[in-house]
Amino acid sequence: MQPESAHALKVAFVAGVAPGKWFHRWEERFPDQPLASQMVDDAQQLAVLRDGTADVAFVRLPVDRDKEALHVIPLYEELAVVVAPKGHEIQAFEEIPLGEVEDELFEYDGGPSERLDLVEGGAGLAIMPMSVVRHFNRKDLRYRPVTGVKPYAVGIAWRREDESELIQEFIGVVRGRGANSSRQASVQRDQQEAAQKRRENLAATQSKEAKARNEASRAAKSARGGKFGTRGGKPGGGKGRPASGKGRPGQRRGR
Asked: Where is this region: Disordered (predicted)?
């Protein structure tokens, strides 16, 4: 069933996340419900939820769900890679231990595109999610998996205060629930409405049956009252006496 909403569902995602498969499932399931999407920098992934720019967001974990008052569901992990300019010695290895490149890393809090610009410009090496590096596809950069670094995790987040059916439907799509899953918001609503309808029908039927029983009871009482008020077919309820002039059995008539 179509979720009830008059506006588009706004979805944000950070670079490297490929939400196309979920968007496609949404369009197949709810073709009349629009969806608006935007890519944001990691630094803005929570801000768009705070200010309402996005209803839900695919974010890089960890995030402080309690401080931000968010629901957060982890989805998957990504491989960490070290990125270097073309021609760097990392190209000679299949994977690199963190200790081998740690001294060449630089600190930067900006977006991933700018970070890659700095690597390309010779500022140093960077450790990033492999999906991000592939997303930007810089021909003058090279990358290798780096060991000794925790994988990057991706999750989906939304505000705790927003429990709309529209969002719950999208969360269900992302988590792979089928259209008829009992955990889908619209299915639960349909089940509740059907249960309410059954209760109303049952109450109406019981009321109708009770009314019929009452009418039958009144009719029976009325019928019993008429029968006992005319016993023997005569008013008053008494039995008729023997005809005068006739004696009782065994008596003789006088002369």
From this structure: 178-255
